[in-house]
Design goal:
mainly alpha, 6 helices
Length: 161
């Protein structure tokens, strides 16, 4: 089923979607390998001595942050423009995406941004806070990957892919 859209914005929406899908695939791989074993305080404390775990964390945090940024700054705005929306700020973009049902909950998406900051800044500084952030990152990762899936369906709905 094709719906109306502004064709001059189709290419940028498709480019943003392509990058988001690639980022989501990389994040999904890191997510699967990171959460294969139980993560607890002992696991977090071992990060200081285990370079393999630290490297996994670095990859996960980087990919998590990159996908979250890309969704909020590129993907959702590109699709908003595609259908004639003109949200200005990140908060406007997220509110628009929630109204369009691309994002389930705008507040949760904004919370993921705060979570990303915790993952970056609390890494090995506060083990309890970092553990909480790692545990919260599991459903947040699923949410981010889910948004990319929703946007792929939007592109299909517009007959772009």
């Amino acid at each position: 089923m094709n719906v109306d859209y502004l064709p001059e914005h189709a290419n940028s929406a498709l480019i943003a979607l392509d990058l988001a899908e690639r980022e989501a695939n990389h994040l999904q791989y890191t997510y699967r390998t990171l959460y294969t074993e139980p993560i607890d305080l002992a696991w977090v404390a071992a990060l200081a001595k285990r370079e393999d775990l630290a490297e996994k964390i670095d990859a996960f945090v980087g990919r998590f942050g990159s996908l979250q940024d890309h969704i909020g700054e590129k993907l959702l705005p590109a699709f908003a423009r595609l259908i004639g929306g003109q949200p200005k700020s990140l908060l406007d973009v997220i509110a628009f995406a929630e109204r369009m049902e691309w994002v389930d909950n705008a507040e949760e998406f904004i919370g993921v941004r705060k979570l990303r900051n915790l993952l970056v800044h609390e890494y090995m500084a506060d083990t309890v806070l970092f553990l909480d952030a790692l545990l919260a990152a599991r459903p947040a990762t699923e949410m981010l990957i889910g948004i990319v899936t929703v946007m792929k369906r939007e592109a299909q709905k517009y007959g772009l892919v």
